[in-house]
Design goal:
Strand 1 and strand 2 form a beta hairpin. It is built from six helices and three strands; from the N terminus they run E-E-E-H-H-H-H-H-H. The protein is mostly helical.
């Protein structure tokens, strides 16, 4: 994992690396409410579609826990309504961001489903939403790592095929030189990276020259 993460999360606490200050400063801003997350997304504190989606999900989770873990609401329905309102508001911070919409819709669905269960309480509804938020975050890391592994294997296979087609042996070192044109690393995702995740996977397997 990268030591410089776009998102730092523990249950009830969320911090974002202020990417507006890079590379000269590494400053983390506390995000205590959905409104704080809205402002951070709008003002480009956090960047990259995956990171934006995770920010929205975790901001709602941290806020719900910090405010009382459900005790702040008098019913499961009230808790679900609060989550729906927060999610709808967050979507407006970057309406074109698909990951943001996906994250917010997942939270709204989790809240609605939890509140509809027999014996549902505000606490059980909030716990379900927090669990969904944390699962969304973990899934982004897992997805990026899978992209890295599959991408690295595909590049190695393509390099070997290209060398064979050109009538030359593959590099003796078994290592590749890779060029990418976009910031798709840990700062744009939950922690690992998409295109740069492929580069990280190559490096981790000893297959990266440069």
């Amino acid at each position: 994992m990268s030591k410089l993460l776009a998102i730092r999360y523990a249950r009830g606490q969320l911090e974002l690396l202020d990417q507006r200050l890079l590379p000269f400063e590494s400053t983390y801003l506390p995000i205590a409410t959905p409104q704080a997350a809205f402002d951070a997304i709008r003002d480009m504190v956090v960047r990259g579609a995956p990171a934006i989606g995770c920010t929205a999900a975790l901001a709602v989770a941290a806020w719900l826990v910090k405010e009382g873990a459900g005790s702040q609401y008098d019913s499961a329905g009230a808790a679900a309504e609060a989550v729906q309102q927060a999610a709808d508001h967050l979507i407006e911070s970057r309406p074109t961001a698909v990951n943001l919409q996906n994250a917010c819709q997942a939270l709204s669905a989790a809240a609605k489903e939890a509140a509809a269960k027999d014996g549902a309480t505000a606490e059980s509804t909030v716990e379900a939403v927090v669990a969904a938020s944390e699962a969304y975050f973990a899934a982004d890391v897992a997805t990026c790592k899978a992209i890295g592994q599959h991408g690295a294997a595909a590049l190695l296979k393509a390099a070997t095929a290209a060398a064979a087609a050109a009538g030359r042996p593959p590099p003796e070192s078994g290592k590749l030189r890779v060029l990418t044109h976009c910031n798709t690393g840990a700062l744009a995702t939950a922690a690992y990276g998409t295109a740069l995740g492929v580069v990280r996977a190559l490096a981790g397997g000893g297959h990266l020259e440069h």
